[in-house]
Amino acid sequence: MEVVIAPAFCAAYPNGMFGFLTVSGCPNRPRTLAIAPEKRAVETLLHERFSGETIDADPVARAYAGYFRRYGGRYPVVHQAKTVLAGRPIESASALVEVMFTAELDSLILTSGHDRRALRCPLAVDVAVTGDVYNKLSGRDQMLRAGDMVVRDADGIIASVAYGPDARTRLRPDSAAVFFGAWCPAGITAAPVQAHLERLAALLRLEWPAAVVEAVELLSG
Fold first, then answer.
1. Which of 137, 178, 181, 187 has its CA at 20 to 30 Å from residue 157's CA atom?
2. Is residue 208 within 8 Å of 4, Cβ to Cβ?
3. Has residue 97 got a pLDDT over 70?
4. 189, HSE (Cβ side, Cα atoms, 13 Å)
């Protein structure tokens, strides 16, 4: 799958990165079947890592929080982590999303998942410009603020950092070939992003032993 970094992204985020993983042979289902021990381990690790200190002080969380403050929002992965710290288990009505959440909560690195059948290549890691609008996951159109990190395919924006993935390329109940993106505008080094993608790939193989991981790549500005 062709993914390029647009010059505008390089100019806006010279230290920014975008990592991606493409996988096939992982037919979605309502619940995961094999990764329960992995989920419990991540939940336990969150309690151990952030016992006696706030998760907001974590360097990865702080890097994202600084970005989200520019757009008047809060970092959703930290919000998810706080619900786990409050006693809620990692869960979703989509096995693919649940695997993604498990990897996200392990690393705190923002990730989106997309049905590859809906993507129209090439993909471009870019920044929003004044007037950009896309149909976000809720089904509502969202006007973007100039400068927000986005990824575009030939038909439009598939996700932004500030507002998340779109409805057109969302993971569906019948998704089986997936594109996962790791969004890193600034303040995060390459090593944890690479480790996050490899962890996600390992979880996918554990849940779907026949899954084929076709690419794990990290692009930088």
1. 187
2. no
3. yes
4. 3
Distances 23 to 96, 142, 144, 201 between C-alpha atoms, Å? 11, 29, 29, 8
Query: What residue type is 123 in one-letter code?
Result: L
Query: Is the full-model pTM beyond 0.90?
Result: yes
Give the helix ranges, DSSP H, for the chain: 7-12, 36-49, 59-69, 76-85, 95-107, 190-207
pLDDT in the model for residue 2:
92
Say which residues have a Cβ less than 8 Å from residue 209's Cβ, sequence separation at least 6: none
> And the tokens for 211?
């899954």
Instruction: Give the pair of three-digit tokens for residue 173.
Output: 């109940």
The string of pLDDT tens digits covering residues 101-160 is 999 999 999 999 999 999 999 999 999 999 999 999 999 999 999 999 999 999 999 999
Which range marks the domain in which residue 60 is found? 3-220
CATH number of the domain encompassing residue 31 = 3.50.40.10
For residue 54, pLDDT over 90 is answered with: no
- Structurally, the chain folds into a number of domains equal to 1
Residue 211: phi and psi, rounded to 5, are: -65, 145
